[in-house]
From TrEMBL, chain A:
Keyword annotations from UniProtKB, A to Z: Membrane, Transmembrane, Transmembrane helix
UniProt name for this protein: TctB citrate transporter
UniProt feature coiled coil, ranges: none
Source organism of this protein record: Agrococcus casei LMG 22410
Transmembrane residue ranges: 26-46, 58-81, 101-132, 144-166
Residue span, DUF1468 domain: 28-171
TrEMBL record, chain B:
Superkingdom of the source species: Bacteria
Alphabetically ordered keywords of this record: Membrane, Transmembrane, Transmembrane helix
PANTHER family the record matches: TRICARBOXYLIC TRANSPORT PROTEIN
Domain DUF112 stretches: 20-443
Designated name of the protein: Tricarboxylate transport membrane protein TctA
Annotated source species: Agrococcus casei LMG 22410
Length: 182, 554
């Protein structure tokens, strides 16, 4: 009804739903269908204690959610088969004309995930420095040493601000850096 | 009278120097973060959440009030000063302000936005003050079936009716509801969808959902398509001495009031808050404008900034009515605030006004205070906001990632949450790429568990008879209103689409020189006294100079 999705050949900001975009949309909707089926199936295995007081047990809501998701994703599948696709979000810093830079996304994502390892092993300030320098460089910062300096400052400032201002102690050092002895 | 007394008590709390300082910090941070491009109000609140973790409840709530209003206002500065097509939702808001800035009237646009926000925010807060206790008193009588009906209405309006595509919204809502399901079922103690993980047994913190989807998801999305080259910032050229011409005041005050009248009621009903309100206000102003002023629409008409900006802030206050009195969030931002309240052990709802009067009234009082601080701060500090807009994008988004990590880690001090945040961020990334709205997901994640609890309570009360759900007059009314909402949204959606298409066509055609000419012409025709005054300041000649040169982009 209020669908503003464009026909595939319409000249849109999304450059008229190119092939890769259509494939991606289809894969995503397929995953949604798979997820909803998964929800419906695994909802049957939720244990419901016998003689629970309510008529509606622990399974009913999961069934409803799975059903709703299945309904919506099948409807989307049909809409997409008929050529109605979504439009990528706009934004102040988003350039919809140019293609997706997967390398940048990958590096930024890895930089963020590195926190999983760096926080316990190296401590918060160093973890932040690595995240910041990695992400900023991937995003196109020109001077790599500057990103390290700014990252280190952010790490130390948040560490101190949380300790002093909010009485929360972020791990200053980690397993590998405990010898620093702060 | 009782209300007034309670409000005064609220002021005595909120005006204590310590809390006043917190309100100040909240407004400052909220505006500063809200001004940053790519950061909307929801992300502002989500990113600043960790700051309040160890404050006492009252202080935290006062900081929140400041962040909320500050973040709402900050966005308008961005859209006025950044010469890039913003989000499609804010296109109408940004349009006129951006054009004004390109003509060298950015100061006037910012001023009418700031003052309009103040006027609207204050009136709307007064309405909240008057309405809140009444709604709360009435809402105490609502039973679980009524609440369930209300939540269904909220789900449908937020999920299906607000975005560009109903099914995309419902799919997003369903993902959110699923995320809300993960964890231990409170009633039976059974683990659901935890994949055998003990850490998932406690469920996924809504803060993680918000930070993951808004902060990390947005950062990843921008990373994939970062606009290259220079930051197209429009400089503020005119001095502050003549930030609002006499005619600007004359043209602004009515839109301020009309914006408030449109924004507040829309904020209070689950109809999507600010988005719809700003659009309606813009359409109204455009329709009501006469003669030359009407011609100026699309070319930098001040009414087109004054109205929507007021509507935006009035809606922000309106959203607090259902949030505080019913415990029902109608926007993503409200959902995050609700989850923050819950971490402090406060459950917004009808009993909040009775159980925690000191807290509620301190919050409301600090809304007034925050609003005042906002208008006092914003105009003088505009230079600082401009500096913020110039932050190189790699640093800005790397910084957002750091704060997202901080928010995830500081909530429970476990890196497991970093992993959860990453998964949510990736989901948010693909949702943005494929045009799914984010807000329904957040609303679903927070409201889903509450809806389930109410449904099960209702079924218990009704002896398992599903008819019990539609027995009370209120629930019948609520379900009936869905039909009205659907009709309204179809009408609104069609109008909006037409509008945006027309606006886009007009915008593409108009040039800065033509805009300045229209503006100068209007100035020309104003009463003699003001014209003289204006030429004394050199306004028309300045406008003339600018018309020769292309808009400065640096």
């Amino acid at each position: 009804m209020t669908n503003v999705a464009q026909a595939p050949d319409a000249p849109t900001g999304a450059s008229g739903a190119p092939r890769s975009f259509r494939i991606e949309s289809m894969v995503f909707v397929a995953l949604l269908i798979a997820l909803s089926v998964g929800i419906l199936i695994s909802a049957t295995t939720i244990r419901e204690p016998v003689g629970s007081a309510s008529a509606i047990g622990a399974r009913a809501f999961p069934y409803a959610v799975g059903g709703l998701m299945l309904l919506a994703s099948v409807a989307l599948l049909i809409a997409q088969l008929r050529g109605k696709y979504g439009e990528p979000d706009g934004g102040e810093d988003v350039d919809l004309e140019s293609g997706t830079s997967w390398v940048t996304v990958g590096i930024v994502g890895i930089a963020f995930l590195s926190l999983l390892v760096t926080i316990p092993y190296l401590g918060w300030p160093i973890a932040v420095t690595i995240l910041f320098a990695g992400a900023a460089t991937a995003l196109g910062a020109k001077r790599w040493w500057m990103t390290i300096i700014v990252g280190a400052i952010m790490g130390i400032v948040t560490q101190v601000a949380f300790a002093v201002g909010l009485n929360l102690s972020l791990p200053a050092t980690g397993v590998f850096t405990s010898w620093i002895g702060i | 009278m009782e209300t007034l007394e309670l409000l005064l008590q609220g002021f005595t709390t909120a005006l204590q120097p310590e809390y006043l300082l917190y309100a100040f910090i909240g407004v400052l941070l909220g505006t500063a973060v809200g001004v940053l491009p790519g950061i909307g109000p929801a992300m502002t609140v989500a990113l600043l959440l960790p700051l309040t973790y160890s404050l006492d409840v009252t202080a935290a709530i006062i900081v929140f009030a400041g962040i909320y209003y500050g973040g709402m206002y900050g966005g308008s500065t961005t859209s006025i000063l950044l010469n890039t097509p913003g989000e499609s939702a804010s296109i109408v808001t940004a349009l006129e302000g951006n054009k004004m800035a390109r003509m060298g009237r950015g100061a006037s646009a910012l001023a009418t936005a700031a003052i309009g926000s103040f006027v609207a925010g204050t009136i709307a807060t007064v309405l909240l003050t008057l309405l809140g206790p009444i709604v709360a008193r009435w809402a105490v009588q609502l039973g679980p079936a009524d609440y369930f009906a209300l939540m269904i209405v909220a789900f449908l309006t937020v999920g299906a009716l607000l975005g560009s595509s109903a099914w995309r919204g419902i799919a997003s809502l369903a993902i959110g509801l699923f995320i809300g399901l993960i964890g231990t079922d409170l009633l039976t103690g059974q683990a659901r969808f935890t994949f055998g993980s003990a850490q998932l047994g406690d469920g996924i913190d809504v803060v993680l959902v918000a930070v993951g989807l808004f902060a990390l998801g947005e950062a990843l999305y921008v990373a994939s398509r970062l606009r290259g080259g220079q930051i197209p910032l429009i400089p503020i050229t005119k001095g502050w001495r003549n930030w609002m011409r006499k005619s600007d005041w004359a043209r602004s005050w009515k839109p301020w009031l009309r914006g408030t009248a449109i924004g507040f009621p829309i904020g209070t009903i689950p109809a999507g808050g600010a988005d719809v309100a700003t659009f309606l206000s813009y359409a109204t102003e455009r329709k009501l404008a006469k003669g030359e002023n009407k011609k100026q629409f699309g070319n930098g008409a001040i009414e087109g900034v004054a109205g929507p900006e007021s509507a935006n802030n009035a809606a922000a206050a309106g959203v607090l009515v259902p949030l505080l009195t019913l415990g029902i969030p109608t926007t993503a931002t409200a959902a995050i605030i609700l989850s923050a309240f819950q971490t402090y052990g406060i459950q917004p709802g009808p009993r909040l006004f009775e159980d925690q009067p000191v807290l509620v009234w301190a919050l409301i009082a600090s809304l007034y205070i925050g609003n005042t601080i906002l208008v006092v701060l914003n105009l003088p500090l505009v230079g600082m906001w401009v500096k913020l807009l110039q932050i190189p994008r790699p640093y800005l988004y790397a910084g957002i990632l750091v704060f997202a990590g901080l928010g995830a880690f500081a909530a429970n001090f476990t890196v497991f949450d970093i992993g959860v945040l990453f998964v949510l961020g990736v989901i948010g990334f693909f949702l943005r790429r494929l045009g799914f709205p984010i807000a329904p997901l957040v609303i679903g994640a927070i409201l889903g568990p509450m809806a389930e609890a109410q449904l099960r309570k209702a079924m218990q009360l009704g002896n398992s008879d599903p008819m019990y759900l539609v027995e009370s007059p209120f629930s019948i009314f609520a379900y009936g209103s869905i039909a009205v909402f659907i009709g309204l949204s179809i009408w609104l959606g069609a109008r909006r689409k037409k509008y945006e298409a027309r606006l886009a066509a007009e915008t593409a055609a108009s040039e800065t020189s033509a805009m300045a000419a229209v503006d100068a012409e209007i100035l020309e025709h104003e009463e003699h006294a003001e014209h003289a005054e204006a030429s004394e300041r050199g306004a028309p000649s300045e406008a003339g100079d600018r018309s020769d040169s292309p808009p400065d982009t640096r």
